[in-house]
Design goal:
4-stranded parallel sheet, about 15% strand, elongated, alpha/beta
Length: about 350
């Protein structure tokens, strides 16, 4: 609102929209530092910002990297603090840091009930945790993928069934398992044109995934372009007919949410928080184990594809747009200040 005057401490090199630059104070050194270094640097910058602007609230967006400095500053200057939780890191030291920050904060914003349960299991009082789901901008809507983008990323013949995954290629996201599932899909499904698997994102397992696709004889149907421009990413979401994820640990699955906003049904494990995002057989498919069978069924039924696509887009518009996030987070901040 017009009365808001946020001050954002951000590392050099982190992009922000031009309209927010006036609210940003750049921290040196640049991004990429681990939490012990941040613990030595951030209190100075937070204190400097507090003395210059005297805010009503301190917000810590990262429990590990900025949480402890924010907690120190909040107590030093007598300000309320709100911490944001995506998901917890299983490393014992990181869990200790995250627990300390959340137990010291006035309120914690968790982006799913699953994240809230993780925090409660760590000893954070449930009455201090508020769940506010993530949201997507209104630009993410169903539409057509331009032919130039389709051809640029080699998505196959016109009308091919594109299976999409988005995220860093790390063990938690299981890109190798995704390649194996897709190989079983191609083995069972003999339809034409042949389906294509597209993974948007980069990481340490990207080359392993390429080698695995080659060893399974499906390299011609797998596309691993790494990171792509934002305008291309939106078009590629619209090219997809299913979003596949084998991840079991998410605070809230943002890639799956963006796909659903574009009318792409999600195929995921029947585990939280996917059970909070996806309505089974209405906006996607929640699978105990045999992903390939469900995907083959989906590929074979155009009518089912259309029903799930419509259900996915409607569910996002009803519950997961940015306006819902703004309203929910504002209520938490006002509660903390009050």
């Amino acid at each position: 609102s017009a009365g808001d005057d946020p001050h954002i401490l951000l590392a050099h090199g982190k992009p922000v929209p031009p309209e927010l630059e006036k609210h940003v104070e750049r921290i040196r050194p640049a991004k990429g530092l681990r939490w012990p270094v941040m613990l030595g640097i951030m209190p100075y910058w937070i204190g400097r910002c507090v003395r210059a602007h005297w805010p009503d609230l301190i917000r810590a967006h990262s429990l590990r990297f900025t949480g402890l400095p924010a907690l120190i500053a909040a107590r030093r200057h007598g300000l309320p603090m709100v911490a944001h939780l995506h998901h917890l890191d299983p490393d014992p030291l990181n869990l200790l840091i995250e627990r300390t920050v959340m137990r010291g904060a006035d309120l914690v914003v968790a982006d799913s009930e699953a994240s809230k349960r993780q925090a409660v299991a760590l000893g954070v009082p449930a009455e201090r945790i508020r769940v506010v789901y993530c949201g997507v901008p209104d630009a993410y809507t169903p539409g057509r993928c331009p032919k130039a983008v389709w051809d640029r990323y080699g998505l196959g013949e016109p009308g091919a069934f594109v299976i999409l995954s988005v995220g860093p290629m790390i063990p938690r996201k299981d890109p190798l398992g995704t390649i194996r599932v897709f190989a079983r899909v191609l083995h069972r499904d003999q339809s034409r044109p042949r389906p294509t698997l597209l993974w948007i994102g980069d990481g340490p397992l990207r080359h392993d995934a390429q080698r695995l696709a080659g060893s399974l004889g499906i390299a011609d149907a797998v596309r691993l372009p790494g990171y792509v421009p934002e305008e291309d990413k939106l078009s590629l979401y619209r090219a997809a007919r299913a979003y596949l994820t084998l991840s079991r640990l998410e605070g809230f699955p943002l890639g799956a949410l963006e796909a659903m906003a574009c009318g792409v049904p999600v195929v995921a494990y029947r585990v939280p928080p996917f059970t909070e995002l996806v309505e089974e057989e209405v906006s996607g498919l929640l699978v105990p184990n045999d992903f390939a069978s469900r995907l083959v069924q989906l590929i074979g039924s155009v009518g089912w594809q259309k029903l799930l696509s419509q259900g996915a887009a409607v569910r996002v518009d009803r519950y997961f747009r940015l306006r819902h996030v703004v309203e929910g987070v504002r209520e938490v901040y006002e509660e903390a200040v009050g």
